[in-house]
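Predict the assembly for these two chains.
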Amino acid sequence: MDWLLDQLWQTFIEKDRWRYFANGMAATLEITVLALILGTIIGVLVAVVRSAHDSQRGNKKGLGHALLGVLDGLCKLYLTVIRGTPSTVQLLIMWFILFRWADSSSMLWVASLSFGINSGAYVAEIVRSGIMSIDLGQTEAGRSLGLTYGQTMQFIVIPQAVKNILPALVNELITLLKETSVCGFIGLTDLTKGAMIVQSRTYSPFVPYIAIAVLYLIMVLALTSLLGLLERRLRASDRR
Amino acid sequence: MIDVKGLTKSFGDHLVLDHIDEHIHQGEKVAVIGPSGSGKSTFLRCLNLLEEPTSGTITFEGVDITDPQTDINKLRSRMGMVFQQFNLFPHLSVRENICLAPVKLKLMTKDQAEERAQELLKRVGLPDKADAYPKQLSGGQQQRIAIARALAMNPDMMLFDEPTSALDPEMVGEVLEIMKELADDGMTMVVVTHEMGFARSVATRVLFMDKGKIAEQGPPEPFFSAPQHPRLREFLSKVL
């Protein structure tokens, strides 16, 4: 017991080491939220392009069709490369190659960008599965009223699809949050890196690592319960 | 009003519509009947380009709608369509279902559209269902809402794709009644149907389709009492 109290003292109180955990957690959350926003935007756009391309039937002539074909090809390339390489490697390439002249103050932004691009690929396929789950009759009804493909997606298909894919999106968010723990590879002091620094000072791994495990768990639980609330609200229209 | 020339549609090797020439005048009520697989639904769906014709031209109010330069969305907004499976938007209330397209296409303000929705709901006999959701309504009620939704665009022409085929028998009457009133008001209508009674009493002209062609057509009186084509005779003997 005395040992544990001593360890806790060393890990958190001595030399204000709790700051490593607090600042690290803030960085982790910030990267996660920024990457989530970017990933959602990329994901929806890619999913819409892919679905639009797949839903084309008959003759594929004209500039619009050609453009869509090119866009679809680019999206497929993006999905293949991003899903086929580890997010850690993507982060290393992003920071040490693509942004090698960047200032260390912009590290958090670059990490968010990297994770956002990574997450977008997974979100894209989730959203696409959601779009495909909506009956084609919904699209036809929208189009027959004179709405454009984009308007039909925006007002009719995607709102219904989101409801169906919310559990999968929550899953992706959890993965994203935990994946940011590799940020230490580029020297970014996120929660995990913070704990590593503390361990290197106290030479004692037990409390810092158990502590961040608990902190990650708490963050995941908080995010999932928040989204669970949203899901229940969206589902409300099913029971009416 | 709508002029069809050499309309052909094939799915792969399967020829569904075989060089159809047809003209539908303003104010006509055309019933399209025929065995399943005869191409009648495909014919109807080609009229607003939900199916893209393989070849041939369709001219609606003087505009060639099969021309890739034509803004198909504008033309579709002048052709209402009612589907077999209703295809109401389940995530929107009845009022929102009706108001969505006129408002998003900026044909009406929100207030105007809501006023019009109320008017149309009264017309289809469901004035108290504006705040209901599609799932709370019976099939017959849903189809009446779907008709109201199409009418909200003030179309010049209405297309009905087997509007009563998915309904319980006791609900068929209420939908046909609305359609009959619409016909009496002078709406140009094309109705793919299995309701011979309706075709007989409401249509001004009946088309019989068989194997992708219009095998016989004429006003309902000689059409039903003195059918010429052997396939039509056989068909009528089965359904009447």
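The first strand of chain B starts at residue 2 and ends at 11. The mean pLDDT of chain B is 94.
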